[in-house]
Specification:
The protein is 35% helix and 14% strand. With 236 residues, the protein is of the alpha/beta class. A six-stranded parallel β-sheet has the order 1-2-3-4-5-6. α3 runs parallel beside α4 and α7 packs parallel to α8.
Length: 236
């Protein structure tokens, strides 16, 4: 299934994973072995940093050449975790991974608002990694998505003096309208083009496929499942 799904993801330089469960790291490494694509791996659970670091180290088996970045947590401060806890987890992961031969970037990923309010989590990371979705702003139409995202990138970069990488951005194809932000196939395409025009590099688009395992909810405009760049996954 992993190989089948990844076979349709072409033309990209990097693929982002969020955790280590279900043998995803070893499966994706095997499926991308013959390609030039790099991997942005993730340690998902801050209470299991050593365990997830060990899983990653075992999967790469001494060959870190495919690994571009490893994140520690996704939107943890935005969800209420104390920034100090996140910073501690970054340090723990960096130490554990370095002892296994990894010398690449280690970051935490958070929303643009959390990163602005708590620049210390950016400064503890090797670069600022932000999830930034114009759709949730409600005041930005799809065709202005690039302007919206670039504004946040520039602002955070100026405040921290660090490179800013957008680790999630996109537009849903279905769901409820959020004021001027309307989910649709055409707006999905318009938003991606706008972002690409504004930010040709340092952007990871969300997500490869629709995520039908998620539950739609009113708080996110019943759009949780419908962000896929390639529609439904072949294995779905």
């Amino acid at each position: 299934q992993v190989a089948s799904d990844l076979s349709r993801i072409t033309g990209y330089q990097i693929i982002r994973l969020y955790g280590t469960d279900c043998d995803q790291v070893s499966n994706v490494l095997a499926a991308t072995k013959e390609s030039s694509v790099k991997l942005f791996l993730g340690i998902f659970d801050l209470a299991q940093v050593q365990k997830e670091s060990d899983i990653i180290s075992k999967a790469v088996n001494g060959d870190w050449s495919k690994i571009s970045v490893i994140s520690v947590g996704n939107e943890m401060v935005n969800q209420g975790t104390d920034p100090g806890t996140v910073i501690g987890a970054i340090g723990q992961a960096r130490s554990a991974l370095k002892s296994s031969g990894y010398n690449g970037a280690v970051v935490t990923v958070d929303t643009m608002v959390a990163m602005t309010d708590h620049p210390e989590i950016c400064k503890a990371s090797d670069f600022c990694a932000i999830n930034c979705h114009a759709f949730f702003d409600g005041k930005t139409p799809a065709e202005k998505s690039g302007e919206f995202v670039k504004g946040w990138v520039d602002s955070i970069g100026e405040a921290t003096g660090k490179t800013v990488v957008v680790t999630e951005t996109g537009w849903p194809t279905q769901g409820d309208t959020n004021n001027v932000a309307v989910p649709s196939q055409s707006n999905h395409r318009a938003a991606l083009q706008s972002i690409q025009d504004a930010l040709p590099t340092n952007v990871i688009y969300f997500s490869a496929y629709n995520e039908m395992w998620k539950k739609n909810r009113p708080g996110t405009f019943n759009a949780e499942q419908f962000w896929g760049l390639n529609g439904d996954a072949p294995s779905s």
